[in-house]
Amino acid sequence: MKKRNMLRKLGLALLIAMLGAGLAACEEEGPAEQAGENIDESMEEMGDGVEEMGDNLEQAAEDAQN
Q: Which residues form the signal peptide (predicted)?
């Protein structure tokens, strides 16, 4: 009975250690996550550029009417 309880505690301790190591590994960015962030930044910059272009076109249209 004592041996069984000791094995359970050891197994639980190993499980907790493995989960902790797994969570610590999630903190580091892998190449796929870095690529995803680069794509997100590029899309945001492109959206900003398109918005600025739209503002410029709108301003040019207003200027042309006046």
A: 1-24
